[in-house]
Specification:
CATH superfamily of the largest domain: Aldehyde Dehydrogenase, Chain A, domain 1
Structural class: alpha/beta
Radius of gyration: 23 Å
CATH architecture of the largest domain: 3-Layer(aba) Sandwich
Strand order of the largest sheet: 12-13-14-11-10-16-17
Strand content: 15-25%
């Protein structure tokens, strides 16, 4: 079996607050990749034979380790991709919760389901598939991986990770974490390889399925490679989530939540609210409160516990959000807050709010991955729904109104994988996570997520009755 021919190069990580080099890693050789996939294949044989209880104990050890090492792991994330330290600590806690959720629930989610047929007995069983390849992004460098790995391992599969290059240290630390918690070598493996190696690794006969989180373009490429190899894939791609504020909403609460919904993780989240659609009677009041509250955000060194907005993870990401803002302003949007990069070292951009954004502008049409919000005026509730659906994306969304029955009716019309009514969109291990349209397919988390990478096997026992 062969994988990609890997050109001997290195992957460099940099601190986005300063631009300083953190570490340099040699790309794995072809021989090393093959050896590590062989180890993973051997590990699968033993790991899949363990009971749910044994695998649950392993995940509980991982959860305990993550909590013990929270300060160190959070500092690593913040240093490598710029996340404010308080948010990094919360991310570690969420990773531990996710591990515990699957430790507690995998056996229930994958229990045999008896089906009455003409057989003496018949049932549906859920069997592991083998090695699942996870291709993961940098914006939540630990949780994105755990969100994929915890259900994958709980089901009896083993995991191979290709992490984003700028968080290579986080990827290697995750492999260390699983090994330090007593999981056998090969149950969780991190490969240090460039993106161009993915097609050949996906095609490798040892890989059973692929989970991808990232951009629409990269996801399309991964999906094509998986389809060519006739392998299951789950894609969690971009989002341009609508945040609808209806005329009867609690405007102050909606504006307060909007700040966190947009600027958490410096706006670098697929499920961050991005298009703020306010019904005409409350448009001005919402915009005013949103601008005032966002203007109070503390921007600075992400290792400082007072900081709420840090640098973007890379300079090219800062440049792209700057382009989107400038182009939208040139087309008629008004800068209500910010609208510029900050004059300081690092990939910093001021928290920005644009008013009077229209559907033809980049801030509406494109995914905005940074601290910039688009505020859009809707004539009425129906117009707000039409604006929300006028996107190629369909990941999540928010709806604010005091009329919950009306909200549930509107939610049924929104083309998104999730709708959060009078609250902020967030992933939760108990609920399925994923999107429609160009936001991808398949689901992560809950029982839907753990069943994505299993063989749903029918067992029929005769004779026929």
């Amino acid at each position: 079996m062969s994988t990609a021919t890997l050109t001997p190069t290195s992957i460099e990580t940099r601190n986005p607050s300063t631009g300083a080099v953190i570490s340099t890693h040699q790309v794995s050789s072809q021989a090393d990749v093959n050896s590590r996939l062989d180890t993973a294949a051997r590990a699968y044989t033993a790991w899949s034979a363990q009971s749910f209880a044994q695998r649950a104990d392993a995940l509980r050890r991982v959860a305990a380790f993550l909590r013990r090492e929270k300060t160190r792991l959070a500092t690593l994330m913040t240093t490598e991709m710029g996340k404010p330290i308080v948010e990094s600590e919360a991310e570690v806690e969420k990773c531990a919760w996710c591990c515990e959720y699957y430790a507690d629930n995998a056996h229930k989610h994958l229990a045999d389901e008896v089906v009455e047929t003409n057989a003496t007995r018949s049932y549906v069983a859920f069997r592991p598939l083998g090695i699942v390849l996870g291709i993961m992004p940098w914006n939540f460098p630990l949780f994105q991986v755990i969100r994929f790995a915890a259900p994958t391992l709980a089901a009896g599969n083993v995991a191979v990770l290709k992490h984003a290059g700028n968080v290579t240290d986080c990827g290697l630390e995750l492999e260390h974490t699983f090994r330090a918690c007593g999981l056998p070598e090969g149950v969780f493996t991190t490969l240090v390889v460039p993106g161009r190696a993915m097609d050949s690794i996906i095609a490798d006969a040892r890989i059973a399925a692929v989970s991808f989180t990232g951009s629409e373009a990269a996801g399309s490429s991964v999906a094509a490679a998986a389809a060519k190899a006739l392998k299951k894939s789950v894609l969690e791609l971009g989002g341009s989530d609508a945040y609808i504020v209806l005329a009867d909403a609690d405007v102050e609460l909606a504006a307060q939540t909007a700040v966190r919904a947009r600027f958490q993780n410096t706006g670098q989240s697929c499920i961050a609210a991005k298009r703020f659609i306010a019904e005409a009677p409350v448009y001005d009041a919402f915009l005013s409160s949103f601008v005032r509250r966002a203007g109070e955000l503390v921007v600075g060194d992400p290792l400082d516990r007072r900081t709420q907005v840090g640098p973007l993870a890379r300079e090219d990401l800062r440049d792209d959000i700057e382009r989107q803002v400038r182009a939208s302003v040139a087309m008629g949007a008004k800068v209500a807050l910010g609208g510029k990069r900050l004059d300081r070292p690092g990939a910093f951009y001021a928290p920005t709010i644009l008013a009077d954004v229209t559907p033809d502008m980049p801030m509406f049409k494109e995914e905005t991955f940074g601290p910039a919000a688009a505020v859009v005026r809707a004539r009425d509730a129906d117009h707000a729904v039409n604006l929300a659906n006028a996107s190629t994306y369909g990941l999540g969304g928010n709806l604010w109104t005091r009329d919950v029955a009306k909200a549930e009716s509107i939610a049924a019309r929104l083309q998104s994988g999730a709708v959060f009514i009078n609250g902020m969109t967030a992933s939760d291990p108990r609920l399925p996570f994923g999107g429609v349209k160009h936001s991808g397919y398949g689901r992560e988390l809950s029982h839907f997520g753990i069943r994505e990478f299993v063989n749903v096997q029918t067992v029929w026992i005769g004779p026929a009755q």
